[in-house]
Amino acid sequence: MNQNYKTHKQKVNMGKVIYYIIMFAFSVVTLFPIYFAIISSFKNDMDIFLSPFSLPEGFKFSNYVRAFKIGNIGMCFINSLILTAGTVIITGLTGTLASYILAKFKFKIKNLIFVFFVAGMMIPIQTTIIPLAYTFGGMGLSNNYAVLILLFCAFQLPVTVFIVTGFQKSIPSEIEEAAVIDGCNPWQVFFNTIVPLSLPAISTASVFNFLFAWNNLLFPLVFISDKRMQVIALGLQSFFAEMTSDYGGVMAAIVISIMPPILAYIALQDKVEKGLTAGAVKG
Questions:
Q1: What is the value of pTM for the model shown?
Q2: Whole-number pLDDT of residue 89
């Protein structure tokens, strides 16, 4: 009995050791590019190639100065923030409204509409570039942030509906009934009851929407030609010329560009985890 217990305990401990080793290796692989970008942002090009993995001898902010002066990262940062904020707000509002109808209302084609949204998740954005470029080019809609925001929303709305609908199905109907008894109209029930309870799922979807809009290069590359309207993904290209490249400057620009997504996830981490687990279990 004791021998079997000891053998079982050894297997459990060995399993934990293997698990922690795998998680540690995964963490190193994930965090190493961030570490490399940060230390390289304080080095000149020669130091980056001669000692790529060592810490910088001193904190030199000249790369960050060039990132703002040469790469116009400050302007690109603001442009990306405008596009991302518009995408997150519009997609979050429309997606939550659509999810509320699909989760709480009963009508004949509800399942068909939900399948229609889910099918939208399977459409690669690359397949739509040529027809969209042809259509918008003919209509003179290039260099238009409103059009770009609507495109981002169109491609992220299926993901938002999928996540939020699964979460809202887990909200007891008795809560809505109690709000109606208290005198709330349908809009008050939605904004005062459903939206606060759905914040974990909305936060989860918003993080995905934020990352999609912030990191998107393909749509801005095709639909934005005005340098004053360039986003941060396009601004990184200004550090690479035909004959020379500013690696220190681009590393500083990369560090600036990755901070908003990291901070957004840290701020919403708890709600994101709750939204994913609740939607997965009860959706």
A1: 0.81
A2: 94
